[in-house]
Amino acid sequence: MLLRLEDVSSIVLIILEQFVSFVTFLLPERLILFFTRVVKFIFSRFKTNDINYNRFLVKDKLQDDKLLQRIEDLRSAASFKELCELNNFKVQNHLIQTTDGYLLTAHRLNPELNGFKPNGQIAYFQHGLLMSSEIWVLMNDKDLNLPFRLCEMGYDVFLGNNRGNKYSNKHVSLSTSDPKFWDFSIDEFAMYDIPCTIDYILSYTNSKSLTYIGFSQGCSQILASVSINKDLNSKISKLILIAPATTPKRLCNWLINSIVNFKPSLLFLLFGKKILMKSTLFWQRIMYPPFFIKMIDLPNKILFDWRSENITNIQKIICYFHLYSTTSVKSVVHWFQIIRSKKFQMYHDSNIFNAFEYPTSTSIAIPDILLIYGMSDSLVDITQMLDHVPLKSSKMTVIGVEKYEHLDLIWGKNTEYYVLDNVFKFLNESET
User: Which residues constitute the catalytic centre (predicted)?
Assistant: First the structure.
């Protein structure tokens, strides 16, 4: 395979990041603390229009400020349970074994346990790529977290986690040090994780159906899963798709477009066959928080042309520290195949046979669907997206939000108006 100049540049940058991570890991803690103080001093010189963020930059003792202490508590929370407790919610953890042996954690917000009257309805949330269940409960304003609001309304709320992330990294026989543990893609999420989780929830609650709420890849997973498990149609009464991605547009930067075109063998050589971007956890731990959010905003701008102007800096301080969770390299290789082919297809490793496309357009028959997307989101091709859902068998409401990008729809300044209110309206209308 002949490599172009941009391909060589991409490979060099990937290797450079891994080298810098390794060297930084070897540095003594005192030296890292010194660099942190220098960065903090530099950041404190530059004020913004966000008063609370400016206070965060100059405060040495955050505990003296109730708001900033809450921001710091949410930022540094180590678990989903801790995030819920900071918002005065009690959570239960459920362990779900898939038919291929993975142990998944689903969190449950039981309305009765939290002092609310149950309404007999189930809501199941599923996160996106390189994420965990934590993404749903990170808004500083408690009332802007959709799972909490639905629990208050009486919904029995469950939040799922994909195999391989921080809450689902066990298997009945495989260790996480075994490459076989990480041999999964979107196919396994669709064939095992989603149907096993839904069946567990319905069996545990003795319910016939539930409302599914997905973000990003969480939308792709349910569409793929229903297309190959047709009985799921009767188990999902309402489907809510937030920033759905099935066949993303071609990405915005030569670097990522170059990497997308790499053969799987080269990608596995560069990233290994286990965890993708594991170094993110290291940088997250040692970086000064305002500097870390800049290091997230910058690649988001370069790779996806996201400006992140609808998310406040103080909200980013919380959210960006919970944005990343582990997944397999193969999952991302699968997405690259989808982007390159412009088809919502299963993982393809054959030079003989054509890739198998998920039969979404002929297999989905969920009665009520709500789709909310950002009109400035480079990852969502709404035309292609609508082709995957058959309008003949489903009633669909499509809402496009102007000047909103991918992450804006869960953490943006006006999510109450653009997302929560529309979700509540949809749920109320479909129940009447």
Answer: 216, 377, 406
Distances (CA, A) of 240 to 215, 237, 366, 385, 419: 9, 10, 11, 14, 10
DSSP codes, 46-84: ---S-HHHHHHHH-S-GGGSHHHHHHHHHHH--SHHHHH
Task: Write the pLDDT tens digit of every residue in 367-404.
Answer: 899 999 999 998 888 888 887 776 555 688 999 999 99
Question: In order of start, what are the domains of the chain with their CATH numbers?
Answer: 5-431 (3.40.50.1820)
Could you tell me if 386 and 400 are in contact, meaning their C-beta atoms sit under 8 angstroms apart? no
Could you tell me which residues are beta bridge partners of residue 107?
93, 159
Amino acid, res. 104? L
Please state whether beta strands 122-126 and 156-159 pair in parallel, antiparallel, or not at all (unpaired): parallel
Buried b (16+ CB within 10 A) or exposed e, 401-426: beebbbbbbbbbeebbebbbebbeeb
Q: Pull the structure tokens for residue 426.
A: 């949809």
Which residues are designated catalytic?
Answer: 216, 377, 406
Q: Which two tokens stand for residue 59?
A: 């405060």
Q: How far is CA 228 from CA 23, 189, 223, 286, in A?
A: 46, 12, 9, 43
- Output the CA–CA distances (angstroms, integers) from residue 219 to 146, 213, 258, 371, 404, in the order listed: 16, 8, 26, 10, 18
Return the SS3 of 141: coil
**pLDDT, tens digit (0-9, with 9 covering 90-100), for 94-149:** 999 999 999 999 999 999 999 999 999 999 999 999 899 999 999 999 999 999 99
- Of the pLDDT bands very low, low, confident and very high (cuts 50, 70, 90), residue 27 is low
pTM over 0.85: yes
Other CB atoms within a 10 A radius of the CB of residue 37 amount to 10
* Backbone φ/ψ region at 64: left (φ over 0), alpha (ψ -120 to 50), beta: alpha
pLDDT of res. 38: 75
Contact 280, 131 (CB under 8 A): no
Please count the other Cβ atoms lying within 10 Å of the Cβ belonging to residue 96.
Answer: 21
418, 412 Cβ separation under 8 angstroms:
yes
Q: What's the pLDDT score for residue 40?
A: 72
CB atoms within 10 A of CB 297: 18
pLDDT at 51: 82
Separation between Cα atoms, residue 87 and residue 64, nearest integer Å: 20
State the greatest distance between any 2 C-alpha atoms of the chain, in Å, as a whole number: 65
**CA proximity to 203, closest of 298, 301, 295, 122:** 122
